[in-house]
Amino acid sequence: MLRGPFILWGFNPFRSEQKLVQCLQDNVHFPFEVQQPKVFVVEYYRDTLWKGALLLLLSAVGCGLYFQTEKGDQDYAGFFAFGIMTGLWLVLCSASKRRLVINHRRGFYRLYIRERLWHQGPLHQIYLRLTAQQDAYGKSFYSLVVSGYRLEELVLARLSTDYEQMQALGRRLAHKLYLNYFDCQEASGRHVVRHWPPPLLHDDKAWPQDADETDRHEAEGLPV
């Protein structure tokens, strides 16, 4: 299993929800780590880094082979040039390490890029969401993402057909991270809203009443 800033690169196109289950067994806050009580941190590179590098490599190799076989014919040279430029652009845009901090003690989240603060926002603007898409035959596929205002989506699992398990995993992780959870349907009884815009944002009594004893101890026994 990949670790460190590459933790989100492990993609299993078959039964991706099972891979997420395994990750949550190892770390109930996956992909975040507990920096200190009620403060969660994840460092990552966007997966477009390896995708761009792969596209750049394939385009460069294909370009070289093409000109060798075609003896200088440039009919399709623009195609390879486009692939090289696109791959290079993806690599440059994704080469900077990101750091996302969710701080419940102070009531905000922060995104750092190249160790510089890119965005800071209140906790009601970051959430877990189950997204859905359909293929040409009407079959639904579900993805679980961490998203928010001015945040790049962190895909935790994708292309799963098991709606019930995906939404259960999303609600479970949102509970552990104490974030809002939204179902794939706009109007749904499965939304779980824990953070609201001010003045309810910093309500210390809003911590979940059904939390287990460990969560309640951490929530109530911390020094301010």
Automatic annotation (TrEMBL):
Q: Offer one Pfam family short name for this entry.
A: TMEM249
- In residue numbers, the region (Disordered) covers 204-224
Keyword Nuclease annotated: no
The record, for InterPro entries, names: TMEM249 (IPR027861)
Q: Biased composition, Basic and acidic residues: where in the chain? A: 214-224
Q: Which UniProt keywords apply?
A: Membrane, Transmembrane, Transmembrane helix
Q: Where are the transmembrane segments?
A: 48-67, 79-96
Question: Superkingdom of this entry's organism?
Answer: Eukaryota
The name on file for this protein is: Transmembrane protein 249
Task: Tell me which species this is from.
Answer: Alligator sinensis (Chinese alligator)
